[in-house]
TrEMBL record:
<feature type="binding site">
    <location>
        <position position="36"/>
    </location>
    <ligand>
        <name>Zn(2+)</name>
    </ligand>
</feature>
<feature type="repeat" description="2">
    <location>
        <begin position="242"/>
        <end position="323"/>
    </location>
</feature>
<dbReference type="InterPro" id="IPR036915">
    <property type="entry name" value="Cyclin-like_sf"/>
</dbReference>
<comment type="similarity">
    <text>Belongs to the TFIIB family.</text>
</comment>
<feature type="domain" description="TFIIB-type">
    <location>
        <begin position="32"/>
        <end position="62"/>
    </location>
</feature>
<keyword id="KW-0862">Zinc</keyword>
<dbReference type="GO" id="GO:0097550">
    <property type="term" value="C:transcription preinitiation complex"/>
</dbReference>
<keyword id="KW-0863">Zinc-finger</keyword>
<dbReference type="GO" id="GO:0017025">
    <property type="term" value="F:TBP-class protein binding"/>
</dbReference>
<dbReference type="GO" id="GO:0003700">
    <property type="term" value="F:DNA-binding transcription factor activity"/>
</dbReference>
<feature type="binding site">
    <location>
        <position position="57"/>
    </location>
    <ligand>
        <name>Zn(2+)</name>
    </ligand>
</feature>
<dbReference type="Pfam" id="PF08271">
    <property type="entry name" value="Zn_Ribbon_TF"/>
</dbReference>
<feature type="binding site">
    <location>
        <position position="54"/>
    </location>
    <ligand>
        <name>Zn(2+)</name>
    </ligand>
</feature>
<dbReference type="GO" id="GO:0003743">
    <property type="term" value="F:translation initiation factor activity"/>
</dbReference>
<protein>
    <recommendedName>
        <fullName>Transcription initiation factor IIB</fullName>
    </recommendedName>
</protein>
<feature type="region of interest" description="Disordered">
    <location>
        <begin position="1"/>
        <end position="42"/>
    </location>
</feature>
<feature type="compositionally biased region" description="Basic and acidic residues">
    <location>
        <begin position="71"/>
        <end position="84"/>
    </location>
</feature>
Amino acid sequence: MSDTRTREQDETEERTRRSESVSEAETEEQSEVQSCPECSGNLVTDGARGETVCADCGLVVDEDSIDRGPEWRAFDSAERDQKSRVGAPTTNLMHDKGLSTNIGWRNKDAYGNSLSARQREQMQRLRTWNERFRTRDSKERNLKQALGEIDRMASALGLPENVRETASVIYRRALAEDLLPGRSIEGVATAALYASARQAGTPRSLDEIERVSRVEKMELTRTYRYVVRELKLEIEPADPEQYVPRFASDLDLSDEAERQARQLLKNAKEAAIHSGKSPVGLAAASVYAAALLTNEKVTQSEVSDVANVSEVTIRNRYKELLEADGAGLFA
């Protein structure tokens, strides 16, 4: 037993001596490189050419050195923060832009072992205090609640991340300009999401927004008009063609039917029969009419469920679309 222990001690001492000798050799090599071997002058590194040159005599000591920095260049701090890939990127979807630290909800240590009851209780207290410190004032608490509401509604509506980012920016602007007094957080958040969806070209109808929102349709429309007016948002009227791909996908229609629906809407615009009519109703009617023209089996009830418009609206609009297309004999 003692022989084995002595052997292990000898091996440990040998490894220590080797590491010390290697570190001394590296130190001597670095000290030699720091001065010019010809005139003992100072060495200067030229990053553009990848060379190490003597500042006194001009001797090139080292060339073709490896640039261990990033491959991108930045000319100001904002561009450097944008291009840097160190750490998680900042995002407007979180009230602190993702710069704070989150304590995970898994009650396990770094090795994957479960924590004891005392450790779990301690971690829960830390999570509680962490949440309290992340929201320092009422505005941050307001923003945290609103961004969570925007993310919830966008997930339910299947909206992409760029729409969520735009909605977050709109809500931040509304909060900064004091547009919230007298209005609910949910109402302004819903209006911001509705506006951003229309700006991004992926609009959702008011009825669809109302289904996932916690505010009524009347409050939503009133708040939406107020936010757009005060923030001077440039939002074009909703185009019926923007609804067609989603309706056609939900009804499992062919590409030919989708193209036919788009053509019907273009003819309707040329005939100016789309003015004053709901874009959702026109889109639903064009999808139904296109399905008839391409001999695909789709009922008015199915289109009504997908588009959330009444069957009466579909019947009235699709006859107008077919007449404008010159296919009124199919009506």
